[in-house]
Inverse folding.
């Protein structure tokens, strides 16, 4: 079930990943500026934030079968993706359809995490880590595709829509919810207030926000950093794309490995350690900007390995700390808050880079892990944290 679920999640999220791969082609075809092309990508993320917040407020993941919600959402997202290809003819209509696609993707990622969490209590970190690891490789794949394939962007978007439909069918026909899935939740729009007021949930979410502050800004801007670095060292744009893929995709395996460690040693200990390493890597990468490649590339790989490895463990912790009947809502609202925060950190990086260089920008990102570590140390002090990782905190 978990392998099929990971495959379905990966296929469903290609509706998002494909936009990164075809962005440069759309920019040329529609004669867009770099800022306008970035707007198409940001539209998906903004739509995802709106969708997850709405879904969480109305408790949809806990009032509707997660499998059905996944299948319906990915099908509607695929239709919106097709409309983007066949109807949109410029920036304004393109942004509308990408925004709509993002809204429907809110019914794909969090419900998938909920289904994964429902299959095990003892190995929940590994189960959720498998999904996040698959999505990490999916997030990295556009950089590899861009380096080796000369494609027509309409064809790529249509193929991604077909893959999305396939993912929905896999979940609907082949995946079941596990024995630890609770049902019978009632509509409770005040649940978000309960999340904020409950100390354990508040600290777990704060740790996740610290992680997200760093993660997506790094994933967004490391291609630019590597392009500048390799061109200055006599490399090519293709070299930069391949190295970007390797740095980001390296985190796919570490998500599963971190799940094994967290299930055995504890969520707060594992996430704090990983954030310390990723934050330190961010600082080191900034300080080593311009250094010889043999010095900086290993640092970037360590950063890529650790920056995503803890992600699934925050979701696992939320699933363990939340009321069982509202796990889906808690995961969805957590995701919404995290992606909303990334809109700020992504926009700040180029502003800081322009005035303080990459050193200043990466120091900015390191603030997130510091906040996250403080939050997880605080969570560890609470008796409620014994609900995590079978009492291993």
């Amino acid at each position: 079930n978990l392998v099929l679920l990971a495959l379905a999640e990966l296929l469903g999220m290609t509706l998002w990943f494909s936009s990164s791969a075809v962005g440069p082609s759309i920019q040329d075809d529609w004669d867009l500026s770099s800022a306008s092309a970035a707007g198409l990508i940001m539209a998906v993320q903004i739509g995802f934030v709106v969708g997850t917040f709405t879904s969480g407020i109305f408790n949809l993941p806990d009032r509707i079968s997660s499998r059905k919600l996944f299948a319906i959402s990915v099908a509607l997202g695929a239709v919106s993706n097709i409309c983007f290809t066949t109807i949109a003819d410029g920036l304004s209509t393109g942004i509308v359809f990408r925004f709509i696609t993002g809204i429907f993707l809110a019914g794909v990622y969090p419900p998938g995490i909920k289904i994964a969490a429902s299959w095990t209590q003892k190995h929940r970190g590994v189960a959720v880590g498998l999904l996040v690891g698959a999505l990490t490789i999916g997030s990295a794949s556009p950089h590899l595709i861009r380096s080796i394939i000369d494609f027509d962007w309409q064809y790529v978007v249509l193929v991604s829509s077909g893959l999305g439909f396939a993912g929905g069918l896999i979940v609907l026909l082949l995946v079941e919810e596990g024995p630890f899935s609770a049902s019978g939740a009632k509509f409770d729009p005040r649940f978000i207030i309960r999340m904020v007021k409950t100390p354990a949930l508040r600290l777990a979410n704060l740790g996740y926000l610290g992680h997200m502050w760093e993660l997506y800004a790094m994933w967004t801007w490391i291609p630019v950093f590597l392009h500048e670095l390799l061109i200055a060292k006599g490399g090519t744009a293709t070299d930069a794309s391949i190295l970007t893929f390797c740095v980001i995709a390296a985190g796919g395996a570490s998500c599963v490995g971190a799940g094994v460690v967290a299930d055995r040693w504890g969520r707060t200990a594992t996430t704090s350690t990983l954030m310390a390493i990723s934050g330190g890597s961010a600082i080191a990468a900034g300080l080593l900007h311009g250094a010889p490649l043999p010095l900086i590339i290993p640092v970037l790989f360590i950063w890529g390995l650790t920056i995503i490895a803890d992600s699934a463990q925050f979701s696992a912790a939320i699933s363990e700390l939340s009321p069982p009947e509202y796990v889906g809502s808690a995961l969805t609202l957590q995701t919404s808050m995290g992606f909303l925060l990334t809109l700020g950190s992504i926009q700040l990086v180029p502003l800081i880079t322009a005035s303080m260089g990459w050193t200043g920008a990466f120091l900015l990102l390191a603030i997130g892990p510091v906040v996250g570590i403080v939050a997880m140390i605080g969570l560890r002090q609470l008796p409620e944290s014994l609900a995590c990782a079978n009492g291993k905190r």
In short: The chain has a mean pLDDT of 88. Residues 327-380 form the longest helix (54 residues). The two ends are 27 Å apart (CA to CA). The CA atoms of residues 199 and 300 lie 35 Å apart.
